[in-house]
Write a structure and sequence with these properties.
6-stranded mixed sheet; alpha/beta; single chain; 2 domains; 18% strand; Metallo-beta-lactamase, Chain A
Length: 348
């Protein structure tokens, strides 16, 4: 039955994407990522259905969020993985989120697309007060309209150029949406500087808006703490070395490692674990956390493979696991207390 549902979902997604990807528009931004409808359909029907996921594997990468810890004052920068590309970062009384997705499906509709494998580690009602949110691009697994409606005008939104009008159409006040181009910076307050940086990706939500808004990564500096959020990206060594040179080094980086298979198709838009390690080095990150895996089954790789390949690559390059450490969904870590493979209490 599950196999039938996966195939049926794939067919429905294929026809939806044929409608979406097959429509033409005049792009505002140029991208090497993305795919035509024919390319996507050919790949999808040439590949096997997505691999089965063992419930025990799902359980192995999750833990309850420590809400008491999260609602306490932290003297060191603290990050909590809520799932997929959503990180809660806290320091000096500032709380911000990356690409928050707190609902069940990465899609504009509530059917035809598989639900998330893991519930958000923190629900909206349990969320601490959020000061601002950064959005990397407009794909549905990164920009969820239902989640945007939850936060609405209670936060400041930092978004790629071309995306502000979408927020205004949802009732978000103009003064609450800060739109930036690559390398532009904005001050949230005198201690917090937010910079929109490059990535290799693309944008699209409808048949008419292909690459009409930008995509990118975010550099957030809070006093003496510097963090980088990668969003979605393919690999460009020169680009990421430039980020490291201009905006780094980083105390923490949140780097995607999943949704990379099959490689012949995904390499133009998503990095794999080996390239994630290269970005960790390129941007001069002291401590990186892998994200964008384990929450939504978006592509072909086995469920736990991204972390296994990441650990293998770190070992091959003689990089300590504590420098680029997988954490559980719901786990909190601080910049001066990096986790390791034998940590007994990862929330300390």
């Amino acid at each position: 039955m599950r196999r039938f549902l996966i195939i049926a979902s794939s067919i429905l997604i294929a026809f939806c994407l044929y409608w979406l990807l097959g429509s033409k528009s005049t792009a505002r931004y140029q991208s090497v990522g993305g795919a035509t409808a024919i390319e996507w359909l050919t790949m999808r029907f040439n590949e096997e259905p997505f691999p089965e996921i063992d419930p025990a594997d799902i359980k192995s990468i999750t833990q309850p969020a420590n809400l008491a810890l999260i609602n306490s004052i932290t003297v060191s920068p603290r990050a909590t993985w809520l799932g997929h590309a959503t990180m809660l970062v806290q320091y000096r009384g500032i709380n911000f989120l990356t690409d928050p997705h707190l609902t069940s499906r990465p899609a504009p509709i509530d059917f035809g697309v598989q639900k998330r494998q893991v519930a958000p580690a923190i629900s909206f009602k349990d969320m601490p007060k959020i000061d601002f949110i950064v959005i990397s691009h407009n794909h549905y697994d990164h920009l969820d309209h239902r989640t945007v409606d939850m936060f609405a005008n209670s936060v400041t939104w930092y978004v790629p150029m071309g995306l502000k009008s979408w927020f205004l159409d949802r009732g978000i006040r103009s003064d609450k949406v800060i739109e930036l181009e690559w390398w532009q910076s904005a001050q949230y307050n005198k201690e917090v500087q937010i910079t929109f940086a490059p990535s290799v990706h693309w944008s699209k939500r409808t048949p008419w808006d292909t690459n009409q808004s930008h995509w990118g990564s975010w550099s957030v500096k809070i006093a003496d703490f510097n963090a980088w959020f990668g969003g979605d990206t393919a690999y460009d060594q020169a680009m990421f070395q430039e980020i490291g040179l201009k905006l780094g080094p980083y105390n923490m980086a949140f780097i995607p490692i999943g949704a990379y298979a099959p490689r012949y198709f995904m390499q133009r838009q998503h990095i794999d674990p080996e390239q994630a390690v290269k970005i960790h080095q390129d941007i001069k990150s002291e401590f990186s956390i892998p994200i964008h895996w384990g929450t939504f089954q978006l592509t072909q790789e086995p469920y736990l493979e991204p972390v296994l390949l990441l650990k293998r690559q770190l070992n091959l390059q003689h990089i300590n696991l504590s420098d680029f450490s997988p954490i559980k969904i719901g786990q909190s870590v601080t910049a001066n207390s990096k986790p390791n493979s034998t940590a007994k209490n990862p929330n300390q």
